[in-house]
Amino acid sequence: MNGFIPDCYSKFADQKIEGKPSRSFPIFITDAPDNAKTLAVYFRDFDSVPVCGFTWIHWLAANLSVQDVPANISHSNNNFDFVQGNNSNISKFLGENAGPVEGYTGPMPPDKTHYYTLTVYALDTKLDLKEGYWLNDFLRKMEGHVIDSATISVPSRAE
After folding, report:
1. How is residue 131 annotated by DSSP?
2. Which residues contact 90 (CB under 8 A, 6 or more apart)?
3. What InterPro entries does the annotation carry (predicted)?
4. With contact defined as beta carbons under 8 Å apart, do 148 and 122 qualify?
């Protein structure tokens, strides 16, 4: 691993949808506030700006009621009740068949190692969001409901 996102969750993954990595990584949460009702996840790539002109959204998930989010929760048939938003594959600039537009789409740095930012939010409520929501709706619905959050940055290799 060498400090990088493991290959099974990124560019070199075997599990893909329309050519894009689709196996979401596990998240192990420690010290979540006792009064947290749900968790939300925002996974993005700021290093994408010089490549495509905007911060790439890799995953938006809300209303997670577990503290240990299992691998592959995004695209597997499971018994977890949560909602996922649109990722950047939905961009009109990518054309048709750009990859899955809802849920997790893994890192695929085209030019060099990119550093990906994961933020997990502990919320005091379940957010009123439907599958396929947009980032702006996600951020607005969280306003006033974030009890705590944690952010990490982790690299993914290009080669």
Report:
1. T
2. 98, 101
3. PEBP (IPR008914), PEBP-like_sf (IPR036610), YbhB_YbcL/LppC-like (IPR005247)
4. yes
Number of structural domains the chain divides into: 1
Helix (H/G/I), strand (E/B), else coil: 109: coil
pLDDT at 1 over 60: no
State if pTM tops 0.90. yes
- Contact between 139 and 56 under an 8 Å Cβ cutoff? The reply is no
Reduced to 3 states (helix: H, G, I; strand: E, B; else coil), residue 7 is helix
Rounded-to-integer distance, Cα 17 and Cα 26, Å: 18
Six-digit token string for 100? 């899955």
The answer, yes or no, to whether residue 57 has pLDDT greater than 50, is yes
For residue 137, what is the domain's CATH number? 3.90.280.10
For residue 66, the model assigns a pLDDT of: 79
The stretch 107-124 carries a mean pLDDT of 96
Residue 75: both structure tokens together: 């695209």
